[in-house]
Design brief:
binds flavin mononucleotide, 8-stranded parallel beta barrel, alpha/beta
């Protein structure tokens, strides 16, 4: 029997990555505001036969507890820079032929017509390689940038997200697959009978009748992905997501969550196989076990102890004087429940704090190092052993690789881990299909 193959997705949000000191590390590239960075990144990941790269996004520079942005800017904190993902991905699309292109786009502010149009445009130009990472935005700063006084509550955001996704799909599917005829002999460009307006579905959104001035995608429609982890977020995922990426937690927690999501898919009448569950990993690879441990230690040593505490305070919306580095971390997390806006993230934080009995300082370092994600450390063979175990024990259908350093950590993965996984028949040697949906299947 062929072993279960891993789906591989790369999460990229330069210059910070999931490792806070990426931008200041001499091994990291600093041309992340140039198209060449994205083109090189895409070519590297395609050489490693990744299914997809996806770009994170936020719609405001993150603020601290006093509403200031200075902390984020001075420390190069996550969110200090975000290019529009669709623009960044268009550079990657032009440099690659098979790599999937995941764009984070929030459902909370934009009209579905705009979302449908820009994602489908990139999907057309890339030959059917786009995924939409559906997020609901979490901060008041993002709301204010869109004319709202504060972010709506989570239930309202997910209700709106359900409506937006449905409206976007309606627009994407307005043209039947064979509606574009291009038949000069019959004198027919497109068959109007095969192009329809979106159905009226009621709800709170302004109705966008469409159709889009664009035929259906070569992959039928862009792939839907999602990372919400609250009960409402998981319900949303079970309804819509074809790719779920999950953070933090133990292998056991991933196993339980993956099984629950697949079961909920079944209850909703979806094929559970149509949902891929991908835990995030931050592998640290080395030529020997001790070399890998040394690399991990050097990543940790490069973190500034004051900056990591400031970053934790910002994340939890705690004022710096509230942080006692030597106090246990759990009460601090509990006192600031809801501050990050993400249940998944808070659960990861709590899991790490409890299972490792972390102090506030320890929590700050773990957050700055890997954001609490699984962090296999060792030779490519040892890391591949761990990943095989996650695949075979029902904890994963593949992985979201969150590297520490751009692009050198991806180099390590593509040159070391990828050939190891291919030798074990855990990763494709060649892309099987031209479209992202085809390759993910
Ligand atoms: C691993 C991970 C990555 C995320 N990336 C983004 C992002 O790039 N932009 C964003 O606005 N939200 C992002 N989110 C937020 C979620 O997509 C979601 O909207 C939020 O977590 C609230 O839902 P929840 O409480 O159900 O998790 C991310 C969440 C997780 C867990």
């Amino acid at each position: 029997m062929t072993p279960k193959q891993a789906r591989l997705v790369a999460l990229v949000n330069p210059p910070t990555s999931q490792y806070a000191a990426n931008w200041s590390n001499p091994l990291s590239r600093s041309d992340w505001l140039r198209g060449t960075f994205y083109a090189d990144l895409g070519r590297l990941l395609e050489r490693g036969r990744f299914d997809m790269v996806f770009l994170a996004d936020a719609l405001a520079v993150p603020e601290d507890a006093d509403g200031e942005i200075a902390t984020t800017l001075r420390t190069g904190g996550k969110g200090a820079i975000y290019l529009d993902p669709i623009v960044g991905l268009s550079h990657i699309a032009a440099a690659t032929t098979h790599l999937g292109l995941g764009a984070t786009v929030s459902t909370t502010f934009q009209h579905p017509f705009t979302i449908a149009r820009s994602l489908l445009s990139l999907d057309q130009l890339s030959g059917g390689r786009v995924a939409w990472n559906i997020v609901t935005s979490t901060t008041d700063a993002e709301a204010r940038n869109h004319g709202l006084p504060a972010i709506p509550d989570k239930a309202a955001r997910y209700d709106r997200a359900d409506e937006v996704v449905q409206a976007v799909i309606d627009l994407w599917e307005g043209w039947e697959p064979d509606a574009l005829r291009l038949d000069p002999i019959a004198g027919v460009f497109a068959d109007p009978v095969r192009v329809r307006r979106a159905p009226r579905r009621g709800g709170d959104l302004p109705y966008a009748p469409g159709p889009l001035a664009m035929p259906r995608s070569p992959q039928n429609r862009p792939v839907l992905m999602q990372a919400g982890a609250s009960p409402r977020g998981l319900e949303f995922a079970a309804r819509w997501a074809e790719v779920v990426f999950a953070t933090g937690g133990s292998p056991e927690a991933h196993r339980t969550q993956r099984a629950a999501l697949k079961e909920r898919c079944r209850q909703l009448g979806r094929d559970p196989e149509s949902l891929l569950y991908l835990p995030a990993i931050q592998p640290v690879l080395g030529s020997s076990a001790s070399d890998a441990r040394r690399r991990l230690a050097s990543l940790e040593e490069a973190l500034d102890p004051d900056a990591v505490l400031v970053a934790l305070g910002r994340l939890l919306h705690a004022r710096p004087h509230e942080l006692d580095p030597d106090a246990p971390a759990v009460p601090l997390i509990e006192a600031h429940r809801g501050a990050t806006g993400s249940d998944g993230f808070e659960r990861s934080m709590l899991h790490a704090a409890e299972s490792e009995s972390l102090t506030v300082r320890g929590l700050a370092f773990r957050q700055a190092l890997s954001q609490f994600n699984l962090q296999p450390v060792g030779t490519p063979a040892a890391v591949a052993d761990e990943l095989e175990h996650l695949l075979d024990s029902g904890a994963a259908d593949g992985f979201v690789v969150m590297p520490a350093l751009y692009l050198s950590s991806f180099d390590d993965v593509v040159n070391g881990l990828v050939p190891e996984l291919q030798r074990r028949e855990r990763l494709r040697e060649e892309y099987e299909h031209a479209t992202l949906r085809g390759n993910l299947a």
